[in-house]
Fold each of these.
Amino acid sequence: MKKTSLALLLLLTCSAAQPQTGAPDHTRFLTLEEAMAEVPYHPMDDEENIRLSKEIYKDYDAIRADLGDDFGGLWLEFNPYGKVYPVIAVANGKAIDRKWLKHGAVVVQVARSVKQLTAMQDVIMQAMGSSDPRDELAIYSSYVDERSNRVAIRAPLRHREKIMAKIQSLGVDASVILFEEQARPFTFPGIERVD
């Protein structure tokens, strides 16, 4: 009896979901744009782009070593058709070896090298890096954002002006800083320090 009731319920549910004409409607979307707007898709979901990105990033360390102090970064972008290609950033006008110009690579000139940005990041974090939420000048974390050619810092937004003033007093150009809000330091409950 239970199986019969479940089968009848399933049959009624399925038939209620069908269009009134009796024929199933398989053309829900009229255009590709409508379908893409409805279904979350990112170009990195494509198998070919995944393969290419792995291949591109295999060369990251070699490109960085080849460019040395003039290495400005490497990241991925997508063409209008969703195909991935590398962007190689170079500082100080250094020429790049042709062997790195594969997969449709684009070379861009940037104002600062990763080495210069990392040096700025180190100065800032040595002076202001802290996990104390009571410290108004605390910067909780930072990283070099190669794509924007800036140093990103994370700190409470309410202390932004004081933090930026302190950074300028350290001799770092404030236009190089990308400020991201982080309300409090990250904590990892359950991890204890053993001395």
Amino acid sequence: MSVNLKRLTTLPFLLCLFLLLLNDFYLKATFHNAFTGKLSDFCGLFIFPIFWSVLFPARKSTIYILTALFFIYWKSSYSDPFIHLFSEYLFTIQRTVDFSDLFALMVLPLSWYALSLPQKRTYFNPQLAALLVFFSFCATSKPRPPSLYFETPQYVLFPSTVHLPDSNAVDMGFRIYNLDTLLVIQAEQIQMDREPVKNDDFNKNLILKDLDKRVLSELSRQYHEIPEGKINRLTIKTKDYQDHLIFRGSRLDGKFLRTNKGQILISGQFKNGIEDAVWTFNNPSENTSVKKTFNNGETVRIENFASSKLTSSESPMTRKDTNLFKGFQLAILFGLFTAIIFQLRKNHKNTLTVPENIKIGYKLLLCISLPFLSWFLQFMIWTIIPDHYTASFQQIAALFLIYVAGIPIFAVLLFWLKPRKQSDLLWYCLLLALLFVFWQEAMMLSSLLEN
């Protein structure tokens, strides 16, 4: 195997590996343009089949064919169900459907040729090269922060001396309109700074507070701000609707109206760029409508109507409600934790007999196996807690932490404290599970309160 691994230390292979790691961990995040996107594809397709062909030399042709087929599948919309499933239950992965990426397939013949070149003497450790390749496949690029999609129309206004091209097609989540000396930009989505703890209206309001600055940052443009007291009334016309806007400075402020052929599609009120009061969303073709009531930018009530009759209503939780509910959950967990401690203390007092003499081998087996039971109990509690806001993939980290902490804890219990009853072992497992869940939820509440 060491002789074969030396093929991972050729100059073309190491150069592509270096460029792949540099691009994924620095260039993409810094520049994020078409070149950095294509560079990863070319370098990755060069080293990927070489790596696996070195490990399985008899399957070289099969590996190259499967690499090409999988790359085509990955870059098509057919891979969307797999990506959504993987992102929901493990961790988020990102991919852009761009058929121009398929040009990277032309590097496969070069990769094949590089693999067949005579092996020259090298001073780079082949095992280290293999480890770096495996790391590059697992780590990939640092994912960009997620984007926030706006349910209500969002516009910002700037004075424009240099016009941007009009765009009625979404480009980077924006629609751009030039009106004489004014530039109107509709933001349909905006990139967030980080993954939110809870993607709710409170988080949306934090983004909206400086939406104008965020838009300029993504467009890499500099414009003078419009004075806050300056009022502009504008109408944006598209083939599907007309938006009637009132700007105070650069932000929407006042009544908003979207119409089409004399019918009102959306009506509402903005206050400093944030939704306020009652918003109505009409669907004339189905004769249905939705009314949303906002308080400080957060949805407090949603009413659904069909033929002007109320069909359903709900009151979503605000961030304040979420924090109170999370605190209530912590109080329940603390109460259960305290009750188990009292039960264990009671068992210790009431059991006067000498604890059973458990063999050392059986104690060691319990020390190894009981942390798994604690993790399973923690997982069951975690699944029934409403609004835990944690990813399923984090349970792998939870298993590791509970196992590392659980082994010494159960060693102390079995070899020193010596439980009075066999049922006490189950109580201790549940106690450790509750303690870990309490810590998780306390950290979650702390994150929710950060803002």
